[in-house]
């Protein structure tokens, strides 16, 4: 019997004689595609615009921050001294300086007395729909009633606004008058902060509370 001829591995597998695949070099991240350049440019422009807007708003509201700091200083001074007249005068002057910065000088500078008060009513604070008012009333003494109001608004106020009013029982025989409140009518306020009531002839009918 004749032996079988020897068969080489290459003749058994024709693909074995082929060379290995030549893979391309991996794609690098640099330089980026044109789309990435455009996206990066838009991002830089957006950051610059946001920074400009924030800086502009801070410059625009700088007078408010300074006015609030001055108001806190005046309030601390009033708490220590108890001089309500001095505090009211300084707070009014601060309010006018802030108005001169916020509004046109020609609009605010000539205002005085009733015109100034009407301007404050027209351009004053407007509460948002998130405002809350809490009222509490106490009988602090015989015939003396204290009313405390706390106004809170996270959008319009930087801190709660406190209002306190005192009401004293009128002595027997005191006459009460009907009063129609017209626009911009204002009751006088004493140095201790008490709001007085006037009769039809403009006379004070309250008993002044001394502190």
Task: Fill in the keyword field for this structure.
211 residues, alpha+beta, 3-stranded antiparallel beta sheet, 40% helix
Care to describe what's here?
The mean pLDDT is about 80. Strands 1-2-3 form a three-stranded antiparallel β-sheet, with no helix packed on it. The N and C termini lie far apart (about 140 Å). Helix content is about 40%, strand content about 15%. The protein has helices at about 10, 35-60, 60-80, 85-100, 105-110, 115-125; strands at about 130-140, 145-150, 160-170. The protein is built from six helices and three strands; from the N terminus they run H-H-H-H-H-H-E-E-E. The chain has about 210 residues and is α+β, with helices and mostly antiparallel strands. It has a domain at about 35-125.
Q: Gap between N and C termini, in Å? A: 138 Å
Low-confidence stretches: none
Shape annotation: elongated
Helix content: 40-55%
How many separate helices? 6
DSSP summary, beta strand count: 3
